[in-house]
Structure prediction request, 407 residues.
Amino acid sequence: MRSTSSIHPYGHPHGHPGGQCKRSSGRRTGHLIFGIWVAWLSLANGILSDLLPDAQARSYKRREREKYECRPSQEPPNADLDKARRLWESGMIYYDSKEYQKARADFQIAYDLSHLPDFLINLAQVAAKLEIYAEAIKYLDTYITECPGSPDVSIAIQRIEDLRVAQAIKEGEKPPPAPRRLPPKPALALIGSGAALLIVGAGLGGGAIVAGKQVGNPDNHNMLFSPDLQSTERRGKALEGAAIAFDVLGAAAMVTGLAWTASWYYEQKTGMSLALAPSLGGVVLSGGF
Amino acid sequence: MQGARRQLPWIVALAASFAVSCYSPDLTKQVYKCDRGKCPDGLYCNDNVYCTQPLAECVVGGIEMMPGIALCIGMGTVSGSSNMSICGAGAATNNCDMSQIKPALCTNIMNCAYCCMK
Prediction:
């Protein structure tokens, strides 16, 4: 597509302004020629020429940009334009040798120096080569913003659509690592509530143990089994009963939750089923994860 | 599963606490007197004085200090004999290894003796 020997930044045969909006001042000649050069670069990289018929692309290469095409920007110093030109040259060499990262770096600096919107197309093309489609889309979006009146805006929009398709395909091929999934909330809730019930049961059991120690105290030898001790015994038994109830419920909840979690880990099952069925002499409760 | 592994010590600790969380007073190291007929659970009021339980080693009742070693309170007639005794049939104080019996709880208790089976 491109022939670097046919066009020189400072030797465009027609002298048409291209990359930036048309200037009226003669002292801007260098910049205007450079603008043409950048416009050609954009075509050479294929973004537009891939989409346009050859005749149209060639026509575009020679087209002058009108003032209304791009938003006016601050004129960079000539020294910066020279640097940008050199960077363009090296960037093109890198591009031709498929060293897209280096080409991208040069084009980016060239754009930062010159603010020529045509470089955005170059950057978009390099980003597309690097399969950084989001970046390429961003560059083209910026280009459309910078040059809303450019006739190639519709092509750029189409190119964005193509890049989005490519991006979707790439993401489909390499899905992002799935975020770490937690077990089902009910399972975690069962484990948590089971642990809480067990803790409460352990506390109650501790109270029962203390009561038992008080009743079993050897110092009480040959003493009356007083109402206080009787009360302690009643309290100890009640605490024991409550502790057993809490522990049984807690253990059941925790075992259920752990089994559910284990099932989820191994089989990625997320639901639980319970069934109540009539049976001889009663009903049968069955379930599964 | 790492989370479950981290929780395992807690689960074991809770299960252990569940296992020991019983009201089980050690009633082998003291002898209670009845209070208006009330005794600790598992004991009954012996002659309305002491809280004991029926034991083979004792004629009336006593407290099992260790397996085969009982502290017996109350005197009665051994079945098949007219002799009054504290120890039941087949049990005698002489059978007891007193070095194992600590503390001596019969102090200040009437009709009290340790009785052991052969």
Observations:
- The domain at 26-173 of chain A is CATH 1.25.40.10 (Serine Threonine Protein Phosphatase 5, Tetratricopeptide repeat).
- The two ends of chain A are 63 Å apart (CA to CA).
- The beta strands of chain A are 273-279, 282-288.
